[in-house]
Amino acid sequence: MEGIVVKSTGSWIRVRMPDGTKLECKLKGQFRVMDIKHTNPVAIGDHVEVEQLAGDSHGMITHIRERENYIIRKATKLSKVSHIIAANLDHAYLIVTMAKPRTSNGFIDRFLVTAAGYHIPASLIFNKIDIYNPDLLQSMEDLIPIYEKAGYSCYRVSALRGDGVDRIRELLRDKVSLFSGHSGAGKSALIKALDSSLTPRTGTLSQTHQKGMHTTTFAEMYELSNRGFIVDTPGIKEFGLIDFDKTEIPRCFPEMESLLPYCQYKNCSHTHEPGCAVKSGLETGAVSWLRYNSYLSILNDS
After folding, report:
1. Are residues 59 and 82 in the same domain?
2. Alpha carbons 194 and 182: distance in angstroms, whole number
3. Integer angstrom CA distances of residue 144 from 96, 119, 171, 299
4. 258 located within any domain
5. Which H or E element spans position 2?
6. Which of 4, 17, 249, 278 has the fewest C-beta atoms lying within 10 Å of its C-beta?
7. Which ranges constitute the DSSP H helices of 150-232?
8. Which residues lie closer than 8 Å to 219 by C-beta, 6 or more apart?
């Protein structure tokens, strides 16, 4: 039998079978030592083959199909080992908040670069627009054109009031989509607004630090009534880029990638070389300083 992994708690893996039923499975021992670069040999969204013995209430995963794509993060801040967040995605959405908690531009850009590096289309959902004062709303309206100019779709949403929810619901139809972001950004609340039959855990902010307290412990795939699927991830504090060649990083910034053929040097780092089209783009406005500073930060960390 073949199914899709919809939840993994480490010891048990829940697989959605073709008839819609869920089967709790174990992972065959050979997979646990196949690839030491990743902390999890099986990920949400994986297509797997399952055996179930007569009389058994659970199954055994015997084969993992080749992934079309996947998105990863560092397992720990200092680790070179990665954790696969999800696989076989049609689209990745980052839930962005201007406050309570604030999503930094650096976090946004690392997410977008990671998605681009693994060939996953990405967009930004600006949530909680109902709680922003005029200054925060203006900050959001100043930020959105920067990302739209770079080629990313941006959506203004209030999970609480319902603003923009219908548009997001339509985008998710018949797709496998990832929702990611900081704890407290409202991922679970937005999922409930998209489909009232779903019951992901929602939480509150830490009043001391105005940061979200973790409510989603494990990534989980939810099935929407419109035949779409959402992968809800644990709140992520930081995206660490792994196994990225420094020369490939500019290609993960769409507005920079289009300028690369016009640089004087093929191996231009876009930091100090003469005749750099990217640096010229800073002067013309083709490249924003905000995004360029993120590029420098990612370059220095690689």
Report:
1. no
2. 19
3. 11, 22, 19, 24
4. yes
5. strand 2-8
6. 17
7. 165-172, 187-194
8. 7, 8, 44, 85, 86, 231, 232, 233, 234
Q: Name the packing angle between helices 105-117 and 289-301 (round to 10°).
A: 70
The angle, 0 to 180 degrees and rounded to 10, between the axes of the packed helices 165-172 and 187-194 is 80
Q: Hey, what are 246's tokens? A: 């420094």
* CATH number of 271's domain: 1.10.40.50
Alpha-carbon span 61 to 51, nearest angstrom: 7
Tokens standing for 30? 């050979």
Question: What is the number of residues in the chain?
Answer: 302
Domain extent at residue 221: 70-232
DSSP letter for each residue of 84-105: EEEES-SEEEEEE-SSSSPPPH
Same domain? For 99 and 52 the reply is no
pTM of the full structure: 0.89
Same domain? For 167 and 266 the reply is: no
78 in the same domain as 60? no
State the total domains in the chain: 3
In this structure, the answer to whether residues 123 and 185 fall within a common structural domain is: yes
Q: At what angle do helices 289-301 and 277-284 cross, to 10 degrees?
A: 150
Residue 297, amino acid: S
Find where tokens 């770079």 sit.
150
**Lookup: tokens for 104:** 């930094």
**Residue 199, token pair as written in the block:** 């019951």
Q: Are 44 and 57 in contact (CB under 8 A)?
A: no
